[in-house]
Every structure is written in C-alpha cells, then in structure tokens.
C-alpha cells in the first residue's frame, strides 16, 4: 500500500493535470505495486481538491463495462468515479474541446435516484426500486494519463477517466422496460457511427449500477437520492474534436445531440 503522502502527491499531480490540461506518465509505470485501493484513495484526493475549489458532487459513474471499450483500452474490469456540477453540460450546450485533453465520446444510460443505495448486497431489483427515471446520456471521457496508456489502477486513480457528461431531456420510468434489449444508435457528423444494446453493459445497466453501489459501498460511499449515475457505455469509444456533431438515440427513450466547438 502506498504511503499517505505518496497518495496525496499523485492526487495533487492529477488535479493539476485536470486544471492545466496536461498529462502524466502512467502511475502503474512509476509504482508497480500500486493497488486499486491505492488508486481509489488517489481519486478521493482529487475529489477533495475539486470540492475545495467549489465543485459540488452530483453523482457517480461506472465505466469500462462493455467488451468493446475494454478491448479498446486494454482494461478488462469496470472502473468507478465521481461526477461534479462543473462536469455536467446542458442539452444543446456546445462543448469547447479546449476544456479537455484527449476526449472520446461514449453513449450510455443515466439513472436518477429517488432513494439511497448504500452497499453492500444491492441487487438489480433494489436499483430499479430506487430509480426515479432513466435518460440517454453522452459521457465524454478524458484521460490525464499520457496517450491513454492506462491499466485499471491508472483509470481509477484518474477518476475513471471522466471528462464531462450531458443527459437528454427525456425522462422515462424504467419499470417494465427490457433494458438489455433496448438499442442505441449513434451518428457522427450525420453518418451512422455505431450501434449497441443495453446488454453490452455487464449484461444489463441495472447490473452496472448494482455493481457500483456495492463497490463504492465497500469503501463506505453510498449512492444517494438525487444523484445521477452513469451506467456504462453501450458502444465503442469515439475520438472527437472541434467541429464534430454526435447524436444518440435509444429506441423508446429518446435521444440527444452534442456539438464540439
């Protein structure tokens, strides 16, 4: 386990990268013995720095849930991170790519919670009972690790490679929906880009949220009523840059668009 001072040092380094739009060498290359627990404490240090700088925690996320994304990144288990108010875009709001370093877009399903989900032992049925609504979502992931050369410990430490997110305006009660069978279609600059189903995310987006609740619960961190939970991409990550326009549609749930400036 890394010493407390080392954990804080890496957290402060990644926080500077976030603010300055810079990257660092992978932590796993510098600390071969780093663990996921160490990485979690580094991410908590980054969150503490962001909150001290005025950001407000509004939700949590699970990432690297689909085989397509796992194979792209070479990370073969989910990661988890935190969402703040400054990370959230409004639908229709253009995203200046200057805010990010090496952005990639992914389409997923956002959950809004009406009840707390404290781990452990949270089930898919518990998630469904606690959910107020679901909506289509773009997450624009980013990495403060140079050239996306990440292992699981790197991405957990770097707040699950989070960048910004935008949630569609449609709000749907998930009860009665067959989430694994729902289909997502994504276009880029007017051309079809990718398709995926809810089953791409650990077999079921509800499974993803339950995993997140139980994983964070082991660290004493609950999912809370009022939070937005991002449940993992259904499609491969797509590099984006200034001038790009992406749309996302989930059958029966609506869609949204994001423009990069």
Word description of this protein:
By secondary structure, this protein is α+β, with helices and mostly antiparallel strands. It has a single domain, classed as Fumarylacetoacetase-like, C-terminal domain (Fumarylacetoacetate hydrolase, domain 2, Alpha-Beta Complex), CATH 3.90.850.10. Helices cover 27% and strands 28% of the residues. The chain has helices spanning 4-20, 27-30, 36-52, 67-73, 124-130, 152-157, 205-217, and strands at residues 57-63, 79-84, 88-89, 104-113, 131-141, 164-167, 183-188, 191-197, 228-233, 238-239, 245-250, 254-259. Strands 1, 2, 3, 4, 5, 6, 9 and 10 form an eight-stranded mixed beta sheet that branches. A four-stranded antiparallel beta sheet has the order 8-7-11-12, with no helix packed on it. Strand 7 (183-188) and strand 8 form a beta hairpin. Helix 5 (124-130) packs across helix 7. It is globular. 47% of the residues are buried.
